[in-house]
Amino acid sequence: MDSQAIAFLAAGFGAAGVTFAAAFGISKLASAAMQGISRQPEAAGDIRGTVIITAAMIEGVALLSAAICFLLSLK
Amino acid sequence: MTEKVAEQVIEHSADSLQAAQHIAHSAEHAANAADHAGGAGADFIMHHILAQPVIELPTVFGIDLTITNHILMMWIVSALLILAFGLSFRRKSMIPKGLANALEATVVYLRDDIILPNMGTEGMKYAPYLLTAFFFVLLCNLLGLVPGAATATGNIGVTATLAMLTLIVEQIAGIKKHGVWGNMKHLIPGGLPVFLIPIMIPVELVSMMAKHIALAIRLFANMIAGHITILAIMSLIFIFKSWIIAPAPLLIIVFCALLEILIAFIQAYVFTILSAVFIGASLSEEH
């Protein structure tokens, strides 16, 4: 296998791993948010703001790794 | 007789040599085509993401002054913002109408939900920077979705500059409030044993740099990822070389474009609120 083939393979596996990790993290966050809103409906606004910020930060890290995978696939 | 045989042998070997050359040549062609196809696919995507020059200008003192389409988009966004805010607030009435109403509602929402909770009333001094950043990032993100236009925030230079501006405003806020020495003392959290301070200072410096670098990369990567997805799925139609399968990629592209509009708003909001949190942290009265 030449290096370009391994780079493509690594990009594919990396993208799959990143998607899995990001989805897992954000789903845990969303489930905690649902529980919090159901316990205390008045805090829904605060919880929604926190959810959006934290989800965006987790996605930021995930997209950083996705950018690395894209760089690999351009090799 | 042997000469004839020799001649035929030479002819045959010349033929086989030519055949071998042909095979090598076509193998090279195939490799080039495969390379070119992979290269052409990536070229097609990179052509729509990298900054393309519009007006070529010379390089002055090592800075390339050519006007790229990203720079043009930033000028268009700035002109649109100045026009929108300037023209709609010409008549200063108590209850604005039309576009001024929408803009004022947005500004009030930002002030009440982002600036005041994170920075308090003394943070209103830095509200102009945060509001400008929000509207600039939002309009840049949205205008990138117009066909034929480029995303200015899809350039790592632009997002890195915005993150550096947040860093500068944050340091200036800390220096104005606590003085230069007080600003540096913020690197040491309160109640720390003295022997841990030599370890904490590099850690805090690195975390400060990492927060702002993440601010830049988050905005850049979110904008670029949407465009790459749309371009890659659009290339499926060309890879299959048929228009019959076109509805499937087109449906996916429509969904991705709608998702990109949502991401544009969310990323502008997240950039502004994280900048507000950083500036508020440097203004806070801990220690």
Radius of gyration of chain A: 17 Å
**Oligomer type:** heterodimer
* CATH class type of chain A: Mainly Alpha
Q: State the CATH topology of chain A.
A: F1FO ATP Synthase
Class by alpha and beta content of chain A: mainly alpha
Number of domains of chain A: 1
Shape of chain A: elongated
Q: Identify the most extensive interface between protein chains.
A: A-B, 15 and 17 residues
Low-confidence stretches of chain B: 30-37
Number of domains of chain B: 2
Tell me, briefly, the overall form of chain B: extended
Which architecture of chain A does the CATH hierarchy give at level 2? Up-down Bundle
- What value does the average pLDDT of chain B take? 83
Biggest sheet strand order of chain B reads 1-4
Strand % of chain A is under 5%
Poorly predicted sequence stretches spanning 5 or more consecutive residues of chain A: none
Number of helices of chain A: 2
The name of the CATH superfamily of chain A reads F1F0 ATP synthase subunit C
- The percent of residues in helical segments of chain A reads over 70%
Report on the structure:
The complex is a heterodimer of chains A (75) and B (287). By secondary structure, chain A is mostly helical. Chain A has one domain: F1F0 ATP synthase subunit C (F1FO ATP Synthase), CATH 1.20.20. Chain A has two helices and no strands. The longest helix of chain A is centred in the N-terminal third of the chain and has 37 residues. In chain A, 9% of the residues are buried. The model of chain A has no long low-confidence stretch (mean pLDDT 89). Chain B folds into two domains: 49 residues; 172 residues. The longest helix of chain B is centred in the N-terminal third of the chain and has 48 residues. In chain B, β2 and β3 form a beta hairpin. Chain B has seven helices and four strands, in the order αββββαααααα. About 3% of the residues of chain B have low confidence. In chain B, α5 runs parallel beside α7. By secondary structure, chain B is mainly alpha-helical. In chain B, the strands form two sheets. A two-stranded antiparallel sheet of chain B has the order 1-4. Classes of the chains: A mainly alpha (75), B mainly alpha (287).
